[in-house]
Amino acid sequence: MAGSSKTNRKKGNVPIEHECQLNLLPRDIWVRIAAKVASNSIHDLFNMQVSCKVFLDAASSEAVYQHATMRVILLVSFLFYLDRSKRRFLDHCIEAENADAILRLGLTEYFWIACRGIAMELLARASTEGSVEAGYLFAMLLLCDHEDEEEVQRGVEMLEFIRTSGKVERCREFFADIFWERWVDERPSDPRHAVACWSTNCFTRSTMADVNDVSRVSCVHRLADYNVRVFLEMFRFY
Amino acid sequence: MELLCIRQWISGLLPTWLSAWCIKPVGGALVRQEPEYILLALMGSPLKKIMLCSSEKEIFSVEEQVMVQHSVIINNMIEDGSYNHEESKIPLDCVDSKTLKKVIDYCTHHTHHHNDNQEDLEAWDAQFLNVDSNGLYDLLMAANYLEIRNLLDLIYGTIKNMIKGKKIDEIRRIFNIKDHGFTPEEEEQNRKEYPHFY
Predict the structure, then answer these.
(1) Cβ distance B166 to B174 under 8 Å?
(2) Does the model's pTM come out above 0.80?
(3) Contacts of A18 in chain B (CB under 8 A)
(4) Contact (Cβ atoms closer than 8 angstroms) between residue A40 and residue B160
(5) Strands B29-32 vs B59-63: parallel, antiparallel or unpaired
(6) How many Å apart are CA B57 and CA B92, to the nearest integer?
(7) What is the SS3 assignment for B35?
(8) Is the CB of residue A102 less than 8 Å from the CB of residue A55?
(9) ipTM of this model?
(10) Quick check: B181 and A26 CB within 8 A?
(11) In whole angstroms, what is the distance from residue A126 CA to residue A104 CA?
(12) Where does the At2g35280-like TPR domain lie (chain A) (predicted)?
């Protein structure tokens, strides 16, 4: 791209061919372009970084890492086997609070490294940064692990928020892709009984299996238990 | 002067709550528009013009509404009163005539055709950006200077596509990067780390 401003052509004795013409554009323009590149493909971002120092500087900024797509980063267990450049890239994204990168690290910590505490912190962080999928997984794990009533209630409330925004199905599909026929070293607890709904008056309690249209179920606690069952069915073991 | 008196007369007649309903897009955001301007437009009054002056001192007369809708800089100048319609030109020393004409074409088209279907608008945009790399660069500088958000996003997307799927040597050729700035050792390290990117 060999553009140059009228002003620069007029002044100075520096031959044009020895200037870096990319410097004629403000850095923040290249940062915005790099962010767009990163949100589409990290391979393109790597190529941009290695093309020249001006691009490397712009494409290494926090704004770029924050919005970079994780689509081509292999998920969960394969995080162990990432090459150096991808691993470094992922670390930068996590530092820049990229929600998707934090989610992926949280998944690895829970299901493959078995560090529940760290994993739950990461998932909560990713959820705060805007990852709906992280919020869903966090809610499911709170309900599965059901350590105390407060955590269960928190799980119910988070799930209800996601459910009323119509994103549960999208989250299920996201994790079904991850866990389908993939061995996990640490699986969530299966409570084998209702965790959220303890009401003996709840008329759907004994009929959840027969309910074809859950939109007709009004008890949010029952719905939470139902969603936990669906979530646990994603885990297949050899 | 006549238009100013008419505007003041209308302004006096309108209830203040009407202002809340009058919004316009400016640089991608929605801002409140004086209702009297909207009413004047509806009444078919002659649209106000402003004068833009390129780096080559060529004057371009443009509908005020067109530039105000798209350029945050020009909108701010009109709103804070620093532009006097009777006497002033807006000097754009960073923008040459050819580029300024293209910018005005873009803003005019998107003002008058904003209700066209998306496909037609995208086709027009693609044709609009069918320029050489110098021209694209100059448009980018002008859009950045005038803070025309829609045009900036369009050009960012185009440059993103220029990089998409290209290897490093191709990117260097497209952007005419003669001096990439890496030392021979750094370049060697890059080639070792990303051999398939070259």
Answers:
(1) yes
(2) no
(3) 179
(4) yes
(5) unpaired
(6) 9
(7) helix
(8) no
(9) 0.71
(10) no
(11) 9
(12) 82-180
The predicted pLDDT at position A72 comes to 60
Q: What is the pLDDT of residues A111-154, one digit of tens each?
A: 878 888 999 999 999 999 889 999 999 999 988 876 688 888 88
Q: Which band of pLDDT confidence, cut at 50, 70 and 90, is reported for residue A233?
A: confident
What are the sequence ranges of the domains in chain A?
A: 24-69, 73-116, 131-182+194-237
Name the pairing type of β-strands B59-63 and B49-53: antiparallel
- The token pair at B168 is 């490093």
Q: Which residues of A touch B (CB under 8 A)?
A: 1-7, 17-18, 20-22, 24-26, 29, 32-33, 36-37, 40-41, 43-44, 46-48, 50-54, 84-85
User: Closest approach of chain A CAs to the CA of B26, in angstroms?
Assistant: 20
How many CB atoms within 10 Å of residue B44? 7
A45, A9, A3: which is closest to A22 by C-alpha? A3
Across the strands, what pairs with B32? Answer: B23
What's the pLDDT at A74?
56
Q: Which of B134, B193, B197 sits opposite A47 (nearest CB)?
A: B197
